[in-house]
Specification:
alpha/beta, two-stranded antiparallel ribbon, 520 residues, extended, five-stranded mixed beta sheet
Length: 520
């Protein structure tokens, strides 16, 4: 048994030695492979980090490039904007889009400022374009304005005219006629829009008697036909000459302006009373007393000598404001003001507190009526609409015999009478506020020239009605060139007040210079 075991042991012993040797070699080979793999892993990890950094750099560069492209696309629209793509007009250095932009800006900020603003904007946005001069911008606006006067209505269109004249220094006045096609009147609850209006005639002159106005009415009617309706402020020199106008065998219907009519009623009911006259006297004295004192913020507005009863609202609003502060000593507006001071300067207003309340009620009644007229127009239902609005404003407005109730009743009667002259189914207008707004825009355009008589800028007045586009520039410039503009200015304006004043200075200084030379 022992021998068998020894033989078995002897047989397995060599094989066991070989197995251990083989395993050792295998283990060493695996260790070397593992070491190589770890080295390779370290190399790959380092490469990955380098690639990641490179990728991050690429992403940063891409983001920076995108930002640059976006900024360039915003600031340099050379490939897209019409200002760059358009060719200049024949005989001009500038494209119609830029010309339209310059004219539009000049109507809001003036010609000199427009040239400066365009230069600043072009420089800031990197726009490589020449900036037009203020003289060129002014000339463009004048040409386009005169061209607009030639593109109004045809004789087959049914039109409403609005007529008024505005005065400047001296005897100069301008007769302005604007119009709107009856089909373009806004629906109820909407106001008139200047973009729908067209300037039909601009006629400066020193004398505007009935025969002068009649001459201009006839001249315009021969060109575009007589209007169906003519709306004016009620002045006889504007109203009476319209009797010569006829359309389809029917006389033009002449209508008045509610605001002017209401101002006349207000003057009769309020302005001619002794209480109001003394009130106005105190207002004038108070303005001089307080405007250079610690009460200057409570000074009354300047009194208007012309159209005072069309602009009475701000004055009554001031009176109500001061009465409030007189009755509330703790109000902020009275901080730092002694009681004796405010009472001595403004205390007189207490005596008129009841009057101010009544006068303000008259003014608010007129405002309510005018709001309806400006949003409703004139038809057979207008008087009922005004009466309903007044009833909603104050259910007792006509309960007592007051100035406000008398004015309201007369206004409704006047509106009813005006509507009765309209043919069945017709609709017109009863307010010239849109025309006054146009005059206001023109005075803003004239700026420092508005108090020096009419200038060449009057030719730009038609451009204030709508938006100037590149198409307007193209068609207008084809219609009126520089020579035609000069002819219109010469025929229409003649020597302006500014030109005559400059000539007077030139003559005087020239004579003085010659006399000085002779003496020397």
């Amino acid at each position: 048994m022992t021998q068998v075991c020894d033989r078995k042991q002897n047989r397995t012993s060599p094989s066991s030695a070989v197995s251990r040797s083989t395993l050792t070699r295998r283990l060493r080979r695996q260790a070397r492979r593992l070491e190589c793999m770890e080295t390779r892993y370290a190399e790959l990890e380092q490469q990955l980090q380098e690639k990641s950094r490179a990728l991050q750099d690429c992403e940063n560069q891409l983001a920076f490039a995108k930002a640059q492209l976006a900024e360039q696309a915003c600031c340099q629209p050379a490939a897209q904007h019409p200002i760059y793509r358009e060719r200049p007009l024949p005989g001009h250095q500038f494209a119609p889009t830029l010309i339209a932009l310059a004219i539009s800006l000049s109507m809001r900020i003036g010609q000199h400022a427009t040239a400066d603003v365009l230069a600043l904007v072009f420089d800031a946005l990197g726009i490589d374009l020449k900036v037009p001069s203020h003289d060129a911008i002014g000339q463009w606006g004048l040409r386009l304005g005169v061209a607009s006067l030639q593109d109004t209505f045809t004789k087959d269109q049914r039109v409403l005219w609005m007529v008024d004249h505005s005065s400047q220094i001296g005897k100069e006045k301008v007769l302005l006629i604007i119009g709107i096609a009856l089909d373009d009147l806004p629906p109820p609850e909407e106001t008139l829009n200047l973009s729908k209006m067209k300037v039909l005639a601009i006629v400066p002159g020193e004398s505007w008697k009935k025969k002068d106005v009649e001459r201009e009415y006839r001249k315009l009617a021969d060109q575009i036909g007589a209007p169906v309706f003519l709306l004016c402020d009620g002045a006889s020199e504007l109203r009476d000459p319209a009797s010569v106008l006829q359309r389809d065998g029917k006389k033009t219907i002449v209508l008045g302006d509610l605001k002017h009519h209401a101002a006349n009623l207000l003057e009769k009911e309020v302005g001619r009373t002794e209480r109001f006259k003394s009130f106005i006297t105190e207002i004038g004295l108070t303005r001089n007393r307080v405007q250079q004192t610690e009460l200057s913020h409570l000074a009354p507005p300047a009194l208007k000598q012309k159209s005072r009863f069309m602009n009475l609202g701000p004055l009554l609003r001031w009176a109500r404001m001061v009465l409030y502060h007189l009755n509330h000593p703790a109000s902020t507006a009275r901080t730092g003001i002694e009681v004796d001071r405010i009472e001595s300067k403004l205390g007189w207003l207490r005596e008129y507190a009841k009057d101010v309340f009544e006068w303000d009620k008259c003014q608010r009644l007129i405002n309510v009526s005018l709001k309806i007229i400006n949003r409703h127009g004139l038809d057979k239902t207008t008087a009922h609409a005004v009466q309903a609005a007044l009833q909603e404003w104050d259910g007792n407005w006509q309960a007592d015999d007051t100035a406000a109730s008398r004015i309201g009743q007369q206004l409704i009667a006047w509106i009813t009478e005006s509507a009765s002259r309209l043919p069945d189914g017709e609709r017109a207008w009863l307010s010239t506020e849109i025309l006054e707004s146009l005059f206001g825009r023109f005075k803003q355009l004239s700026r420092q020239h508005s108090k020096g008589g009419f200038t060449r800028l009057i030719a730009m007045l038609p451009m204030l009605c709508g938006k100037v586009t590149a198409d307007h520039v193209r068609t207008g410039f084809r219609r009126v060139d520089a020579r035609a503009l000069q002819k219109w200015l010469s025929d229409t304006l003649g020597p302006t007040l500014t030109a005559r004043r400059n000539a007077a200075y030139h003559e005087a200084f020239k004579q003085n210079l010659e006399q000085t030379s002779v003496t020397a």
